């Protein structure tokens, strides 16, 4: 405070404080502007994902039907086939019950026509995906800045695998949305705890940090309840912050254990009621997939498959920009998270593209660090209705000297 007073006394008169700093320069964003921006982003994401859900009509993975919609139909209407996973208690009813409630509402409103019953779950998932896009935008804005957040949202919307997979009723799709939302609240708590403020505002900052962390823990617990493998992500995120915490015992005893115990108790009681027996789904899931390698029955890949084939194929043309963005941004927390998830998942023999969906979304902010490079690439992929063929349009903008610009368009049809 004394330094500021001396500067003002030596410089301009007291009445002339100079031009007021803009919100971006001062680091403070007006709440009304942020709310309007978030609303516009959400409206854009809702419209885009709704069109996404209506356009993608191809077959990808049986789990979007047999592990979700078929189970939901059985719960709602009393008939439907249950695969062997449900007879052995490897899946939780938490995810299918969301769509079972949707089916019941459609039946009560006499809207349960074949077309509506097929498309309504996709449209509901598109709403979840839109909120995932919003939280990715907010997360990138929190970690980097508004310009990077816009490019991260752009990368998310035009990525071919996200367009192909995120609106499907896979548990991985909802896990991805919960992961990015949880990361936003978790890093909000970290940034709030690091914020410097005057003494009168320290209590408010601490309350915001504690509440954001509790919301993040709740979302993380729900994500792990839907897919226990989500614990791989949150183990890294939690331990990284836990090492630097001052009140470790308070965090574990007052935050982690109560929230985790409540979510585990509720989901376990729900599964007991639906299964009709005492089943602990996370334990059965880990026994089958981790300790007995039951997933290997569906095929195995080499250890490096995620690094050399799976993950690069998902990022596709954005791969060089993602690599440059990782080095440029120097946000090693997110880079370490990506490497950690890829490394742990590589230990398992059975590997699939969709298992990396929640990890894939964390690269969007990283790859947007190339925003000031002299060229930009946008990739659009339209998944056709037959044989999973796609028409891929690669649009390259190469600025040249002066106001002239060179546009190059590549069209490729791939099976």
From TrEMBL:
Region called Disordered, residue ranges: 1-30
Chief localisation class: endoplasmic reticulum
Subcellular location: Endoplasmic reticulum membrane
Keywords: Endoplasmic reticulum, Glycosyltransferase, Membrane, Transferase, Transmembrane, Transmembrane helix
EC number in record: 2.4.1.-
UniProt membrane topology term: Multi-pass membrane protein
GO molecular function: glycosyltransferase activity
InterPro entries noted in UniProt: GPI_mannosylTrfase (IPR005599)
Stretches with biased composition (Low complexity): 9-19
Transmembrane portions of the chain: 93-111, 148-170, 215-239, 251-275, 303-327
Gene Ontology CC: endoplasmic reticulum membrane
Enzyme superclass (EC): transferase
UniProt family annotation: Belongs to the glycosyltransferase 22 family.
Name of the protein in its database record: Mannosyltransferase
């Amino acid at each position: 405070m004394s330094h500021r007073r001396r500067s003002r006394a030596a410089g301009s008169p007291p009445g002339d404080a100079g031009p007021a700093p803009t919100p971006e320069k001062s680091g403070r964003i007006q709440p009304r502007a942020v709310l309007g921006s978030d609303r516009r982003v959400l409206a854009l994401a809702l419209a885009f994902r709704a069109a996404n859900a209506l356009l993608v009509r191809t077959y990808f993975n049986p789990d979007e039907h047999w592990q979700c919609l078929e189970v939901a139909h059985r719960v709602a209407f009393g008939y439907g086939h249950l695969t062997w996973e449900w007879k052995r208690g490897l899946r939780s009813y938490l995810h299918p019950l969301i769509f079972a409630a949707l089916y019941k509402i459609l039946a009560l409103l006499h809207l349960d026509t074949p077309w509506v019953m097929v498309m309504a779950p996709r449209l509901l998932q598109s709403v979840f995906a839109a909120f995932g896009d919003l939280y990715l935008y907010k997360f990138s804005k929190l970690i980097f800045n508004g310009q990077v957040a816009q490019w991260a949202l752009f990368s998310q919307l035009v990525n071919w695998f996200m367009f192909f997979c995120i609106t499907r009723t896979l548990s991985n799709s909802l896990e991805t949305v919960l992961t990015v939302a949880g990361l936003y609240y978790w890093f909000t708590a970290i940034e709030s705890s690091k914020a410097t403020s005057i003494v009168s505002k320290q209590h408010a900052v601490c309350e915001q940090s504690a509440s954001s962390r509790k919301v993040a823990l709740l979302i993380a617990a729900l994500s792990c309840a839907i897919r226990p493998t989500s614990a791989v992500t949150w183990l890294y995120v939690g331990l990284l912050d836990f090492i630097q915490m001052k009140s470790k015992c308070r965090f574990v005893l007052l935050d982690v254990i109560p929230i985790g115990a409540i979510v585990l108790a509720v989901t376990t009681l729900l599964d007991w009621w639906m299964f009709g027996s005492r089943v602990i789904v996370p334990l059965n899931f880990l026994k089958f997939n981790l300790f007995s390698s039951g997933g290997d029955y569906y095929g195995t890949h080499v250890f490096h498959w995620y690094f050399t084939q799976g993950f690069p194929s998902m990022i596709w043309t954005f791969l060089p920009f993602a690599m440059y963005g990782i080095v440029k941004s120097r946000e090693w927390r997110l880079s370490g998270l990506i490497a950690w998830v890829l490394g742990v998942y590589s230990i398992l023999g059975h590997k699939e593209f969709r298992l990396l969906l929640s990890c894939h979304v964390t690269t969007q902010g990283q790859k947007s660090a190339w925003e000031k490079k002299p060229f930009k690439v946008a990739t659009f992929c339209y998944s056709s209705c037959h044989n999973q063929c796609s028409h891929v349009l690669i649009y390259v903008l190469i600025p040249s000297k002066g106001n002239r610009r060179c546009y190059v368009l590549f069209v490729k049809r791939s099976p």
